[in-house]
Amino acid sequence: MTVWDDLQGQPAVVEQLRQAASGEGLTHAWLFTGPPGSGRSNAAKAFAAALNCDQEDVGLRGCGQCQACHTILGETHSDVTFVRTEKVTITIDEARELVATAGNRPSSGRWRIIVVEDADRMAERTTNVLLKAIEEPTPRTVWMLCAPSPADVLVTIRSRCRSVALRLPPASDVAALLVRRDGVEPALAEQAARTAQSHVGIARRLARDPAARERRLETVRFPLGLRGVTAAVMMADKLVKIATAEANSSNEERDAAEKAALLATLGAPESGTLPPAMRSQLKQLEDDQKRRAKRSITDSLDRTLTDLLSFYRDVLVIQLGNAVELVNVELRSELEEFASRSTPESTLARMDAINKARDRITTTNVAPLLTIESMAASLIQPSKETR
């Protein structure tokens, strides 16, 4: 197993990064772009491991077996810093800390590497803090920025980076990865990869969590019963509850583990009142967890709306002649009946309404429930639409 194994369906990217790791075309700043699920952060991590791999033979770097590869993949290597925000944006103070870290020489590896997984979550003022460090990097430092598209990064930054463009892998490759890496039964792996629309992380969650599969199916079936304003309001409330439950299910265990670890590190007493210094640190952790929970709900709601969007995507595919495979194959008969009662134009309008709601939720501070209610009202389908 090498560090490249998780980059399913990306042979051109793997070859580009392999050559750079061996010294051909290596530069000081890289920009990894691709849609959610394309594996841009995995590609950056694999590249970081290949650059600092212990193998002396440049052709074998990225072996996945040496100490350097293991520690980088586990995000514990002293010379590789991973940055991902669990808040709405990366702050300017965090950016300044990165610049200071980038100025240090590597302590054990060949390169000091900074991987920013959420480069699109930096305000212009924050990005400008990184500009000089990326423009004139210290020797032996490599920056790796990840974003959904080049347009999500300031032109002054992306013009100084070498681009690595990823795409969503075929569902068959994602299914094969789930079978090989996670031991998922092949039929379930195929279903999870298809319904996740090739998003590796979501496919893995769907394959391993029956409750997640049920929540997704409930979301996708909502339009089948959407007949009036009351149903739209109820649908909006349920969608927000589904997204909240999805986010909480992944946060609760993590929050408890973080709190226990902090108390153990501080040497807190098993019972009684905590000293003031410990209480302040615990309060800081709880505040950070609340901010993370807010973003988790936003991200979960965006995924929920993406699942809902797949219903209308399948309806449009049927209306246009079944040119490609359906995402929700299990609902084919219901989808065909729904498609017969609407037009491609109205389906596109409903898809646009969902995408507008996604944009508002992820980029503004609007109340999610009000946004989803407005969207749901625009999805109401008359008993028969004029073709």
Structural features, described:
By secondary structure, this protein is of the alpha/beta class. The chain has helices at 11-21, 40-51, 67-73, 92-102, 124-135, 155-158, 171-182, 186-195, 200-208, 210-221, 229-266, 276-319, 332-340, 344-363, 368-379, and strands at residues 29-33, 80-83, 112-116, 141-147, 162-165. The protein has 15 helices and 5 strands. A 5-stranded parallel β-sheet has the order 2-3-4-1-5, with helices on both faces. Helix 5 links the parallel strand 3 and strand 4. Helix 7 (171-182) crosses helix 8. The N and C termini lie far apart (55 Å).
Notable traits:
5-stranded parallel β-sheet, alpha/beta, globular, 387 residues
Summarize the structure.
By secondary structure, the protein is α/β, with parallel strands linked by helices.
- Average residue pLDDT: 86
Helix content: 55-70%
Number of distinct beta strands = 5
Q: How many helix segments? A: 15
H/E series: HEHHEHEHEHEHHHHHHHHH
The coarse silhouette is: globular
Describe the sheet with the most strands.
5 strands, parallel
* Contiguous uncertain segments of 5+ residues: none
SSE topology:
Elements: H1 11-21, E1 29-33, H2 40-51, H3 67-73, E2 80-83, H4 92-102, E3 112-116, H5 124-135, E4 141-147, H6 155-158, E5 162-165, H7 171-182, H8 186-195, H9 200-208, H10 210-221, H11 229-266, H12 276-319, H13 332-340, H14 344-363, H15 368-379
Parallel strand pairs: 1-4, 1-5, 2-3, 3-4
Helix pairs in contact: 1-2, 2-3, 4-5, 7-8, 7-9, 8-9, 9-10, 10-12, 11-12, 11-15, 12-13, 12-14, 14-15
